[in-house]
Amino acid sequence: MIFIKLRCLPTILVGLVAISSTVVAAPQSIEVCESRALDGGVFRAYANPKPVSSQAFTTNGGKKINLDSLPGPRALLVNFWTTWCTPCIKEMPSMDRLQGRISRDQLLILPLVRDGKGLSEAIRFYRTHEIINLPVAADRFGKISHDHHIGPVPQTLFVDQQGLVKGLLIGGVDWESESVLELLDDCLDVKADQNPSG
């Protein structure tokens, strides 16, 4: 009986080594929403995410919609911009293409114009630059900007599916670049390879 137990010992040891190596193996990649520098901007992750503003923005049709009614189950990017801001002009086409690649059920990109002229100037800008996937909207009295301490534009809030602001992107970026797509995945669990449906 003892002889049989000793003969089985190598098999048992091999099994234990296999189990322990499986337990010790680290995950291939860990998605962490953290601050980082990007080409053209910097993302500041918030250690303690707070709810997105409940203030209303104005749509192209003049309707007022509370910002906090938009997230969930989708994530939200709230971009603050003006029609005369050079980095805004440069980043808007890639932002438009990104929205065309991702379903609005997963991610809604909401540019809020801050021009004094408001929506009429934004509509002209959209036509000139052939922006077709993004809604026209304005933070008319700057209340949303004020709630989130928005400074010089462009700046973009990253809002998760629970309506919490995970961080702020300061500056204009290429929204289809690998580093920005990785940021969207890490902070909002949004992947750009999803088929758009809305």
Low-confidence stretches: 1-29, 194-198
Q: Can you count the beta strands?
A: 9
* Spatial arrangement of strands, main beta sheet: 1-2-9-8-5-6-7-3-4
CATH superfamily: Glutaredoxin
Structural class: alpha+beta
Our Rg estimate from Cα atoms comes to 23 Å
Quick check: average pLDDT? 86
Topology as H/E string?
HEEEEEHEHEHEEH
| Main beta-sheet strand count, sense and barrel state | 9 strands, mixed
Beta-strand residue fraction: 25-35%
In CATH, the architecture is 3-Layer(aba) Sandwich
CATH topology: Glutaredoxin
Q: Sum up the overall morphology in one term.
A: globular
CATH top level class name: Alpha Beta
Provide the number of structural domains: 1
Number of helices: 5
Percentage of helical residues?
Answer: 25-40%
- First-residue to last-residue Cα separation: 70 Å
